[in-house]
Amino acid sequence: MLHRSATGGRGGVRNLAGVPVRESGPLSDSAGCLGGAETTLRLAAGTPDAWAQLVLAHSNGARIVAIEPEYRYLGRKLDGFRAEMEERECRPASGVRWVREYLDGVRTLYVFQMLSYASEDQAGWNASDGLLELLRTTAGGIVYAEYEGWYVGTGDLIVWDFSDHVRDGRQRAAVLRDGRWVRFVMDRGNAARRAAFWRGEVPAGCE
After folding, report:
1. What is the pTM of this model?
2. How far apart are CA 49 and CA 20, in angstroms?
3. Tell me: the pLDDT tens digits for 162-171?
4. Interstrand relation of 39-47 and 2-5 (parallel, antiparallel or unpaired)
């Protein structure tokens, strides 16, 4: 699983180990996957076939994010995620149950440690999101973002961990219905729609 830690957040993939990483200078952005930013992905530790740290940076050398696989303390960290969901009373219950079961099969945690602030480097954060999605689609997996929650697919929130004072904004989300994810878009600042999502329902008007 991929985990982006604050200064910002996203994170979760099963078995990304073994994906070769080659240090080849500026990354091509012909598909726009890195948000249009000219960036370089550098192998900072390990080997291309068994990397221990990657660093994504701007062409001027300013670092954006460091990515590290976590193996040694994986069990402890996964237990921490489970405990945190319970302590923070994350919702909906159906999404929490699904994530807890999913964690039982996780073999590697990939931590995205943000090295810049979104307010100061939006282009870098967009590039980080593009890289995260590229790794997620390569290996499969789910994402955890500190102070946000858990995501599946290409960014559908399934477990809410935002502050009660979260700002208004469009939020892609999904709830389980008969064992399948039902996806929709809601205004996360709308109290009634938040409450419906917390109950595991598709909010009225968001079908």
Report:
1. 0.78
2. 5
3. 877 777 789 9
4. unpaired
Distance CA 62, CA 42 (A): 12
Backbone torsion region of residue 159, taken as left when φ is above 0, otherwise alpha when ψ lies between -120 and 50, otherwise beta = beta
Say how far apart CA 187 and CA 170 lie, in whole Å. Answer: 5
Residue with tokens 């590039």: 127
Phi first, then psi, for residue 66 (nearest 5°) are -110, 135
- pLDDT for the residue numbered 49: 77
- Joined together, the tokens standing for residue 47 give 């080997």
Residues whose CB falls within 8 Å of the CB of residue 11, separated by 6 or more in sequence, listed in order: 1, 2, 3, 4, 5, 109, 110, 111, 112, 132, 143, 144, 145, 146
Radius of gyration of the chain (CA): 17
- pLDDT for the residue numbered 160: 95
**What does the alpha-carbon distance between residue 105 and residue 188 come to, in Å, rounded to a whole number?**
30
